[in-house]
Amino acid sequence: VSFNAIDSALSSLKNCQSYINSGMDVATQVALDLVESFNDEEDVNNMEKVMLEYATMDRELNHYIKAFEETINQVKREKPENLPDLENLAREKFLEMESVNSDSDLQRNEKYMYFKDQLKEMKKQYHGNDTIEQIDEDIAVTRSQMNFICPITQVTMKRPVRNKVCGHIYEEDAILEMIQTQKQKKKKVRCPKMGCSHVDVKGSDLVRDEILKRLIDSQKKQ
């Protein structure tokens, strides 16, 4: 088996990862739609099971990719006279990784964690245990115009993203452009929210705030 053939196979596997990620995004949207339309809790739970199945596939794929990458690097490093059976070597590494799997791995999947976080927020908005007055007051505060305005563009956000580190929210395109511009200058990005002390905003720290987006869209329709 040539290294080029393996590189090509790894590239295909990484493409599969993007399909898994897309599937998890769709499952999250469907679950939020179910909560918003007051569907049966069992339907929402079924979407969580789908997310866990995706997380399992993602973990397996990651192990497979890692096993092959480690095998190739090992062979290139050791430069043996006779090329070993790369497939068998990779399979051994893969099985070793899979042998220490646990359910907690799946719970730590980033997309699954995002799913749980957004679901919790959506349930709080639509099925809170507080009195009706408290719920109305909470929604009124959440819907305040200030929460809808991006600190960078100073206009209402269309695709809000939340910074996992400091919790502040920005327009996705605006913050990514800021990060890219500063990266070219080899500088870090300070959180653009006034008064925030976070001085190193990274693209990997940003997650889409689906609940806020729905609130913004809802207000536009009114």
From TrEMBL:
Keyword Manganese applies: no
A Pfam family it matches: zf-Nse
Keyword Repressor: no
A Gene Ontology BP annotation from the UniProt entry: double-strand break repair via homologous recombination
GO CC terms in record: nucleus; Smc5-Smc6 complex
Pathway: Protein modification; protein sumoylation
Cellular compartment(s): Nucleus
Principal subcellular localization: nucleus
GO molecular function: ligase activity; SUMO ligase activity; zinc ion binding
Similarity-based family: Belongs to the NSE2 family.
Protein name according to UniProt: E3 SUMO-protein ligase NSE2
Species, as recorded: Rhodinocichla rosea
